């Protein structure tokens, strides 16, 4: 039997450490040599488009997919060698809800807890506490199929907390949910963070990353393009404001030349032109002064979407 090393004291502040982490399928690099550290209690995000390698990274952290090369430790342990021990520290919320539709809501929590070998005396009160946390107490005896998408997500999160994990892995926690359901979920995740749980989440929603993440890595095609807090990334890779102009589909693609010199950078997208400037209103006045009249104009703050566009030349949401 392999003995489990004790978690080194010096590493207590770092709960996940990846060095040159790589996963290949045939000759395709799904995760292409990424490195990052996550300290305890942080809310850490992997932000990137579909196919960037986010889920593959999560699966390696969760010990359900072995890495091709590189180093990875979770709570000081290698998930490839100590899968069950690593999973005992983790709560996992997969991209697709995989609740047991044959069981009632509360039963889902109990059954999952039994799978972890947790005793009945612990599970009953814990299930009730988690239903309360997930705002599902009144649905305890209901059928899973009768829950809304947001409720199913909350039940999946409640289920992932049955073993009091120190780290919660959330793969695209709010994909497919309506705005209200997303906000309720964000609030619950924020409470977990306040309670000291380390959150690792993947998302392709920039607003979600901005709301939830203390720090994130921007990933594209299996590589890390940038790393930092949302505010620091925006400061480093974008201007304070962005002026969005729509001139109509024909004109959008040809007008950029006439805008040269306004702001510090211009991006032409199929449906609009973006002028990056610290003062968006001043940029708009400069556009008018050139006799150019957009159909619509909007000044907004820079977002992580702008960071992604800057780093990859592509829009985050296709
Ligand atoms: N088992 C597999 N076999 C072959 N290729 C795979 C496998 N799993 C993932 N891939 C490929 O690896 C790349 C990264 O996939 P991954 O699911 O990690 O991306 P992602 O960033 O999580 O995107 P999504 O949000 O779509 O899940 C994709 O091109 C995907 O097609």
Layout of helices and strands, plus pairs?
Layout: E1 14-25, E2 28-39, E3 43-47, H1 54-61, E4 69-74, H2 83-89, E5 90-93, H3 105-115, H4 120-133, H5 149-160, E6 167-171, H6 179-194, E7 198-203, H7 206-212, E8 215-220, E9 223-228, H8 230-237, E10 241-246, H9 249-252, H10 256-259, E11 265-268, E12 273-277, H11 280-289, E13 296-301, H12 304-312
Parallel strand pairs: 3-7, 3-8, 5-6, 6-7
Antiparallel strand pairs: 1-2, 1-4, 8-9, 10-12, 10-13, 11-12
Helix pairs in contact: 3-4, 3-5, 5-6, 8-12
The structure holds adenosine-5'-triphosphate.
GO molecular function, one term: ATP binding
Keywords: Antibiotic resistance, ATP-binding, Cell membrane, Membrane, Nucleotide-binding, Translocase, Transport
Membrane topology: Peripheral membrane protein
Q: How many H/I helices?
A: 12
Distance between the termini: 49 Å
Which hetero ligands occur in this complex? adenosine-5'-triphosphate
The secondary-structure element order is EEEHEHEHHHEHEHEEHEHHEEHEH
Classify the secondary structure makeup into a structural class. alpha/beta
Task: Report the top-level CATH class of the largest domain.
Answer: Alpha Beta
Total number of β-strand segments?
A: 13
**Number of domains in the coordinates?**
2
CATH architecture of the largest domain: 3-Layer(aba) Sandwich
Secondary structure: helix percent:
25-40%
Low-confidence segments, given as residue ranges, are 7-11
Q: How much of the polypeptide forms β-strand, as a percent range?
A: 25-35%
**What spatial form do the alpha-carbon principal axes imply?**
globular
